[in-house]
Amino acid sequence: MSTLERTRCRLRAHPFALDAVLAAGVLACMLSASFVDPHGGNGATWGARAPGALSLTLMGLAAAALVFRRRAPMAVLAATGAVSLVELVTGDPRAPVAMSAVVALYTVASTKDRPTTWRVGVLTMTVLTASAMLAGPLPWYAQENLGVFAWTGMAAAAGDAVRSRRAFVHAIRERAERAERTREEEARRRVAEERLRIARDLHDVVAHHIALVNVQAGVAAHVMDKRPDQAKEALAHVREASRSALNELRATVGLLRQSGDPEAPTEPAPGLHRLDELADTFRNAGLPVEVARADHGTTLPAAVDLAAYRVIQEALTNVQKHAGAGAKAEVSVVRVGPNVEITVLDNGAGTDQGPENGGGHGLLGMRERVTAIGGTCTAGRRYGGGFRVHAILPVKNRTTAPEETV
């Protein structure tokens, strides 16, 4: 910080001292001007003169009033205006006491609004100039009288310009602060949206694995007495499904940790590369699943890859829960132009509490997830029985949402 800036900061921190210094400077200027007689001498040079006692007293009172110009600008203007009026009418017409009224008028104009500035400025110029012209000892056209009019007008204009500049700078600062707050609110909104997406993913994970656990536990309970080996195998599937659920829950909930918490897992999100593994979990649960892929090794963005995996997972979970005994599922992944089409079919008879009637959130979450990345998803009963889920996902993610890590 430069010396000038440090001095300016100190003066701003002590405004009363700054006004006292200004008042002393104005008093010095008035005294210096009062000792000069521009009409003295031989007409070609200025002469010297001594101001009267009344002029000295009025200059002292006017300078003392300026010390309080920030605290009571209107009162100081009234006081300096009255003192200047007395000097212009009864005192030495060349004593520049009106200089204090000029400073006070500038202070009013720089602190008040524009209508107030115009009213007070016009009143001050009119009263002081008219009094000097009509009641003063000099001719009405004397340059001192015109000087009073000019200086008061310039003081009002300069003060209004300073006030306008301060208001402009303040508006720019407020706009910058408001923009900063808007950015922070936008960041918080994005965090909330991201956590909502994580919550939806959490629902998909829990629904899938709990459905498998429920099915395998029912099988184990049914064959426990007659076929213990099969019951043992079903319990092993229960254990594996529960372990997978815990791992995915741990990874997903880890994303919700705060910045000061231990580092969250960074396991990559599941995608179509785990489709065979997903199908095996359902086959182990007793649901025959056939997988056909014709995507020709297409590499999908992380968000699209995760959405495709979750759509298939949710659709197969619904088949497991609602299709009934003897049902089987068919999964196809096909690349069609700029899109990847996901189709899940089943031939189950279904129940009255099917996915479209049960009031659950699986199909709704599936559609929201696909829509969020710019795709479409339809689901409904097939002609002749069974259920069909069809999703069209863009190969290039058209959204700006951050990629999800589970």
TrEMBL record:
Bilayer-spanning residue ranges: 16-36, 48-68, 120-140
Domain Signal transduction histidine kinase subgroup 3 dimerisation and phosphoacceptor: 194-259
Record has Transport as a keyword: no
Protein name: histidine kinase
Keywords for this protein: ATP-binding, Coiled coil, Kinase, Membrane, Nucleotide-binding, Phosphoprotein, Transferase, Transmembrane, Transmembrane helix, Two-component regulatory system
EC main group: transferase
Top-level taxon of origin: Bacteria
EC number assigned by the record: 2.7.13.3
Domain Histidine kinase/HSP90-like ATPase, chain residue ranges per copy: 307-396
